Each structure stands twice: as C-alpha cells, then as structure tokens.
Model the fold of this input.
Amino acid sequence: MRTLKEGQPEDLEPGQGGVFGTAAQVAAYRSRDGELRKFSATCPHMKCIVRYNEAEETFDCPCHGSRFDVERGRVLVGPAQSDLEPR
Done:
C-alpha cells in the first residue's frame, strides 16, 4: 500500500489510484475506461486517512481495516457503516 501520492488526481492513468493532498485529502481512482472518481480520503468510522491498495484496487483504512470500492467509494468491509463521501 502507498501513502500520499505526488501530483494531482487528474494525473492518474487508467487503472491507477492514490490519496492526494495535505489538509482536505482526496482518494482518487481513474477507471480503466478513463473516468476519474474522487472521494474524501477520511474513513467515516474513526476519521483515519485511507490508503490506496494497488494489489486489491481498494481504498483501505489502516486503523481498523475498513475497505472501500474504488469505483463508488462503497464500504466493502467494516467496521465503517457508511461510504466515502464523493468529491
């Protein structure tokens, strides 16, 4: 897993994802069809910052293990009960 990615979400190639920013961090993923998807990088469970899991293509919370879908920010595995907020 990687931490903060340099550059901007718009720099992502298809099939890539990352977490960008310093204050209002953004979790971003560019789908294989080229569409850029952006979400708040703050896990709704306990407010930790998610990381992009390149191997699984998910956004994962390092604090308590919540996992989120990169296409829609949906919770795949809790304890988070709500999705990542769209940006």
About this structure: The domain at 9-77 is CATH 2.102.10.10 (Rieske Iron-sulfur Protein). The CA atoms of residues 26 and 40 lie 5 Å apart. The first strand starts at residue 16 and ends at 20. The chain has no helices and seven strands.
